[in-house]
Amino acid sequence: MDEMIRIAVVGTGDVAMDHAAALTSSGPVAAKIVAAADTDRTRLDAFLAKHGAPAGYDDIDELLARSRPDLVYLCTPPGLHRDQALACLRSGASVLVEKPPALSLRELDEIAAAVGEPPWFATVFQHRFGRGQARLKALVDSGLLGRPLLAVCHTTWFRDQAYFDVPWRGRWDTEGGGPTMGLGIHQMDMMLDLLGDWTEVRAVTRTQARRTETEDVSLAHVTFANGAVASVVNSALSPRQESYLRYDFEHATVEVTHLYGYRDEDWRVTPAPGRDDVLAAWQAGLSGAGDVAAAQNSRSGHWAQFAKVLSSLRDGTPPPVPLEESRRTLALVAGIYASAATDRPVKPSDVSPGAPFYDSMAGSRAGSG
């Protein structure tokens, strides 16, 4: 790959406006935005003016043919991700996509079939890349915390009716689900990044207050292969908004409370009696912390992940978060929907090829589009 990585941005709404600059300022790898695409010309022109991209298109195929990007950053609604990702991969461009990576496991597997080495496919799960998450993973790997026993993973946010009235939101065929898919997926990904494979989920979903085809709240009990159990709540109805993760290990409780991105001070460690060594290790942090703490001001955010994506592309290695890991997170979302719809516990095999919830987060429910 040339020393300068050529980036195209598809979808120039608020997400792209807020985060695209991080792609060209993420550490030592030189990169530039060479093109953008959007069906809304006013929005596209505003993006081009802000980020200095030289070419704008209303068609992704024309963008790919004319601009020949190395990496395409997809910031479009979820219902467009599969077709756009396939177009990029088949043209030879790697893909970085905002969550959720696809509407269903079937769609994600179709994308996987088009991935080469390169081009690659990665999902934006930026909360994996702050210093607190990296420090916690290092302590888990060291064995100092002991076994994970219990976890709490709560995304309690507030979205009014106007949020759901956007035409593609709150629909199975365009968003893929409600807050379980569109909001809580970030916290669930952080949990899975730490605890690994899940083995069973029992869940309920409800539409409590919003006019929407999907849920506006879900609750789940998740069991992991390592024996840990977790309580998971995803809500769009909570006026006091909070993102909260808690892990009870044999030798300490570790918590983080934030909203859309954590800082070092948002983490708390409570050692078990007689285990002050755990707290000392947490405070000491990681050796070589500058590499794992790439987020500016030690905050979880796009900057840290983007720096690693660009470094990987430069080095010819798969970027984080690889498709198999984002698939595990999407499978848990499917498992929650499947368990809630069928009123029974669900295992990963219950959302495998041939199962209704493999094809759609709605399963066989009426109104799934």
UniProtKB/TrEMBL annotation:
SUPFAM superfamilies for the chain: Glyceraldehyde-3-phosphate dehydrogenase-like, C-terminal domain, NAD(P)-binding Rossmann-fold domains
Pfam family, one: GFO_IDH_MocA
Gene3D superfamilies: Dihydrodipicolinate Reductase, domain 2, NAD(P)-binding Rossmann-like Domain
GFO/IDH/MocA-like oxidoreductase domain sequence ranges: 135-242
InterPro entries: Gfo/Idh/MocA-like_OxRdtase_N, Gfo/Idh/MocA_Oxidoreductase, GFO_IDH_MocA-like_dom, NAD(P)-bd_dom_sf
Domain Gfo/Idh/MocA-like oxidoreductase N-terminal intervals: 5-115
UniProt region (Disordered), positions on chain: 343-369
PANTHER family per the UniProt record, alphabetical: D-GLUCOSIDE 3-DEHYDROGENASE, UDP-N-ACETYL-2-AMINO-2-DEOXY-D-GLUCURONATE OXIDASE
Record-given protein name: Gfo/Idh/MocA family oxidoreductase
